[in-house]
Amino acid sequence: MAGETDLSRLLQSMTPQFNPGQYVFCCVAADLDCSALHPIASLREAEGLSLVLPSDVADANGLSYDYVAAWITLQVHSSLAAVGLTASFSAALAQAGVSCNVVAGFHHDHIFVPIERAERALFTLRALSAAALPEPV
């Protein structure tokens, strides 16, 4: 099934969901076999392999990190070709003083925010979604 592309409908139906736990971004050697770590996400960069992991997995494996995040998933099935969704929610979060790191999956957008700002981020995303709802007739 194709994902949604209409920005208004995307915003109205974002349905942000908090995923329990604490998550970290680590960088390891590009040739490391990380399959046993079961990363949430990975991305090969010139400097190495970036991994998003639960903090307890990183700790248990002696991996260093600087940033502890909460993970929020937008439940709307957004198309990878949709225009404006990331810009809209990142602008709203920025205005609320919340940094965000976004990972786009095939079906959903995943937002990593500072753990101490998770509630503020959820409130902001829900307010953005509510503001996009059409006025009652």
Automatic annotation (TrEMBL):
For this protein, the record's Pfam families field holds: ACT_3 (PF10000), ACT_7 (PF13840)
User: Which residue intervals define the domain DUF2241 in the entry?
Assistant: 2-69
Q: Which residues form the CASTOR ACT domain?
A: 70-126
**Spans traversing the lipid bilayer:** none
Identify the InterPro entries for this entry: ACT-like_dom_sf, CASTOR_ACT_dom, DUF2241
Q: What is this protein called?
A: Uncharacterized protein
